[in-house]
Amino acid sequence: MKGPTDHRRPTTDSRAAGILLHPTSLPGPFGIGDLGPSVDRFLDWAAAGGQTLWQVLPLGPTGGGSSPYTSSSAFAGNPLLISPERLVEEGLLNREALEDAPQFPHRRVDFATVRDWKQRLLRLSWEQFEHLATPALREDLSVFLRAPEQAAWLTDWGRFAALKAYFSGRAWTDWGPDLAFRDSEALAATDEALGREMAYERYVQFLFFRQWERVRRAASESGIAVVGDIPIYAAHDSADVWANQDLFQLDGTGRPTAVAGVPPDYFSQTGQLWGNPLYRWDVLEDENYAWWIARIRSCLTTCDLLRIDHFRAFAAYWSVPAVDQTALGGRWVPGPGRALFDAAREALGALPILAEDLGVITEEVRELLDALGFPGMKILQFGFYGPDSEYLPH
C-alpha cells in the first residue's frame, strides 16, 4: 500500500473549493454507493466543475449501525464500500454472482439488506481467491499483510471481527472474562479455532484498501485532493477499546466509568450524550501517544488532508458520569493540548490537519489552534445569528 507522500497533497493555506460527499451516497446498482465506476463519474463531474477537494466522512466499518462516526474500528475500512464490479474485473468474483441482487430502494440505503448481500458476495470472493487467485494477487495480499502500517491493528481487528461473528454480534464485554480481558491462552485458542475466519476478515480489508488506493489515484489524476475525517472518540464496542483497554476510562467489567458528550447548547437543552468511553490521557502520555500516532499515520495513508472531529476536546473535554442519562452532570476536564500533536509531528513530520473547532470555543481553544497552525471551520449559516457573529463571511 502506498503512503501519504505518494499523492498530491495541498497546503492548508491554499484557496480551494470542494464537495462533501460520503461514498455511500453515490448512485449505483447495488443499494449503496461504493468504490466502483460511480466514483470515477463523480470525480469527472467534480473536476469539470473546478472542484479540487473531496471531503469524505470516516470510512470505517459501522458494525450493526449505519453512522460512520460509530465505527467498530478506527483503522479498518468499511466492507460495504467494496465494489462488486471491481471484484469481477479483477477475477475475484464471477459476474453471475451479481445477477441475484435484491431490489434495493433507490432513494435510501437499506443497510440490513445491503449488508447481508454484500457479505455473501465477499464470502464468494474469498473462496474464489483461495482456489483461483493468480500468483500476483496472492503476492499483493501478502505484501498488504506484512506492511508496517497494518501491524498496529490488523491482527486484533481480525480477532475482534471473528469473535463478534462467533458470539452473534454481542459486545466484547459479554464474551466471558478470558476473552473480554484478553487472556493470552484464550487469544491463542481463538487464533487456532477461528483462524480461517480471521484470515477472511484480513482479506476483506485487503480488498477495501486495494480499491480505495485506486480511488486515491483517480482523484489525484483528476486534480482532486481527498479530505479525510477522524472522529476524536472510539466506540466502546470496537476493536480499538477491546485491544487497548488501559487507554480508556473503564471499570473492572470493561464498561466506561465516564463518557463523552457536550454541555447544553443551541442544539439541545440537556446537552449531547455521545456515550463513547473517554481516554486516559495520562497513560497515553506515558506511551508518547503511540496509539494516537498510529491512528493519524493510518488515516494519512487514505487522504491528503485530515479533518479531526471535535477538536476542542484536545484543549478540554466534557466528561459525563457513565450512569447519567443526560449530559447535564458533566464537567470540563483538561485535554492533552499540543503535547499530542508535538509527538505526532516528531514521528510523522508535517501534519496536514484541519480542525473541526465548532461548539463551546474558549480562548484556550483558540490559543491551541494558533500554536499548532491548524485552520479551523466557519459555518456560513451561523453568520446570520447576530451582527457580531465570528462566522460572518467578511
3D structure, described in words:
About 40% of the residues lie in helices and about 10% in strands. It is an alpha/beta fold and about 400 residues long. Strands 1-2-3-6-9 form a 5-stranded parallel sheet, with helices on one face. A 4-stranded antiparallel sheet has the order 5-4-7-8, with no helix packed on it. Mean pLDDT is about 95; it is low at about 1-10. The protein is built from 14 helices and 9 strands. It is globular.
Strand content: 5-15%
Oligomer: single chain
Distance between the termini: 43 Å
Work out the helicity level. 25-40%
Q: Main β-sheet, in a few words? A: 5 strands, parallel
Mean pLDDT: 93
Beta-strand segment tally: 9
What is the tally of helical segments?
14
Q: Runs with pLDDT <50, length 5+?
A: 1-8
The largest sheet has its strands arranged as 1-2-3-6-9
Q: How does the helix and strand content classify structurally?
A: alpha/beta
Rough outline: globular
Radius of gyration: 21 Å
From N to C, what is the helix and strand string? Answer: EHEHHHHHHHHEHEEHHEEEHEH
